Amino acid sequence: MRQLASWRPELVSTPGQDVAERLGQWLHVAEAIGLHAARGQLAAAARRGGRPTAEGWRTRLQQELDRLRSTLTRSIRAVDPSHRPDPGDLDTEFALYHQRLNDLQRRMEMGVDALRQHVRQTLAQVNPELAAMDAVMEPLFAGREQRLLAGLPAFLRARFVALRQQAAESGSPDALGWLQTFSAEFEQLMLAELDLRLLPVVGLIESLDP
Q1: Phi/psi of residue 88, each to 5°?
Q2: Which one, of 118, 145, 120, lies nearest residue 134 by Cα?
Q3: First and final CA of the chain: distance in angstroms?
Q4: Model confidence at 84, in pLDDT bands (50, 70, 90)?
Q5: For residues 88, 89, 94 and 100, what is the CA-based torsion angle, rounded to 10 degrees?
Q6: What is the predicted pLDDT for the residue at 11?
């Protein structure tokens, strides 16, 4: 969020509410009631206790999480060493970044969604109420999250144009040095999105730690 705010400060306002209040505005009354019921079941189960142990499961799931994170990180950092940007056709250059963003988002969505389902199914054997609560929460917030993430190309284009203009105004002898800056910032943004998408999975796995 700090990175995006530095790119488009005119679109950022100081919220008057905390995160929970703002998330609550995403929910309809019926959705809020369902979420509240799931939370009540979770609290009741915690008071009852007597759950089977999750010995060994957390380690295996953490390894799967680490493998997925590593695979997707390599995809984000992968570059074509033979690619040479054309200074006279920078619109095509941005289009390549846009396509790369779309490809990475699809890979992240498919990989993370599959792992989240797997972790939830495993968790259901130890704490079915918590697994059910995650199943309730995912559809409540996933659509809004996807719509927000779909807005990233607009931020990228604004940053691309701004760096290009700054380079033109400065008269730097390295005509495409700014493109290296953009490439590094693109990588940072994708790694941040990966962390964001993995947060629910991380939380589910951590819940297996006694």
Answers
A1: -90, 0
A2: 120
A3: 32
A4: confident
A5: -120
A6: 65
Q: Where are the alpha helices (DSSP H) in the chain?
A: 2-7, 19-24, 29-48, 57-77, 90-123, 128-149, 152-170, 177-206
CA 126 to chain centre: 27
Write the DSSP symbol of residue 202. H
* Residue indicated by tokens 């759950």: 51
Among 78, 75, 89, 80, which Cα is nearest to 176's? 89
Distance between CA 200 and CA 138 in Å, rounded?
Answer: 9
pLDDT recorded at residue 207: 87
Instruction: Answer yes or no: is pLDDT of 120 > 90.
Output: yes
Residue 81 phi/psi, 5° resolution? -65, -20
| Mean pLDDT over each residue of the chain, to the nearest integer | 86
